[in-house]
Design brief:
Layout: E1 3-7, H1 11-28, E2 33-37, H2 41-50, H3 55-58, E3 64-68, E4 70-72, H4 82-89, H5 110-125, E5 137-142, E6 167-170, E7 178-181, H6 183-187, E8 189-196, H7 202-209, E9 225-230
Parallel strand pairs: 1-9, 2-3, 2-5, 5-8, 8-9
Antiparallel strand pairs: 4-7, 6-7
């Protein structure tokens, strides 16, 4: 994998670095700044830092368009919801317009919910086909599981073989149904950033960076740059 690695001292330093990095990227963007958010403990730290001074005042919230990389099919007020975590850590504390926040739908049939979210992304993008020279996202934030999964792209699941849809339902091999962006949707990005914290993930991080084909995260690409922020 042709990716840049930045190593930080600990999870707090990683979140601080990522928050400042993301803010500078957003400020440098000419227009709308579109992000695919991630769930997890390290992103929560990142969002908490973004929601506090000095970054809360510097970040261009009016130009930010927030989407999600994956979500569990649970109500948005469920403790397991990535949207709820982001709302509590970030959205409720910053002046982002409600119209700029695009949570994944989690009601009804998961396949239908995936199709609805794909339509939302297409409406934002202004086309139904991704163009190589016009990324869907400015930044995609991703985590990394100890089994090599990222977003809700888990080993040996059909989502890994989907290269047409932008969003799919994951209903097998997981405790509860989920929605996830697919490889082509993630790849339609100016930058992909993996946030990886903890000694337990050092081995899988090394394997992903070495391109182990059995690990879903190894297959992630970007139209621009893939980065790893690790602690």
């Amino acid at each position: 994998m042709n990716a840049e690695l930045t190593v930080l001292a600990d999870p707090q330093a990683l979140a601080q670095y990522a928050a400042h990095w993301l803010t500078e990227r957003a400020l440098a963007a000419a227009g709308a700044f579109t992000i695919a958010l991630s769930g997890g403990s390290t992103p929560r730290l990142l969002y908490t830092i973004l929601a506090a001074p000095p970054l809360a005042e510097r970040f261009p919230w009016a130009r930010a368009q927030l989407f999600w990389g994956d979500e569990r099919c649970v109500p948005h007020d469920d403790p397991a919801s990535n949207y709820r975590m982001t709302r509590e850590a970030l959205l409720a504390k910053v002046p982002i317009p409600a119209a700029n926040v695009h949570p994944m739908p989690t009601d009804g049939d998961p396949a239908d919910a995936a199709a609805r979210y794909q339509r939302s992304l297409q409406d934002h993008y202004g086309a139904k086909v991704l163009s190589a020279d016009r990324p869907l996202f400015d930044v995609v934030l991703l985590g990394l599981g100890e089994n090599g999964h990222t977003a809700s792209l888990f080993p040996a699941t059909p989502a890994l073989d989907e290269f047409s849809a932008w969003v799919v339902a994951v209903t097998s091999g997981v405790p509860q149904p989920r929605l996830t962006l697919t490889y082509p949707a993630i790849a339609s990005s100016r930058e992909v950033v993996f946030l990886v914290a903890g000694a337990a993930k050092r081995g899988v991080l090394a394997a992903v960076r070495a391109g182990d084909p059995s690990l879903p995260a190894s297959q992630v690409t970007s139209a621009g740059q893939v980065r790893f922020f690790a602690a």
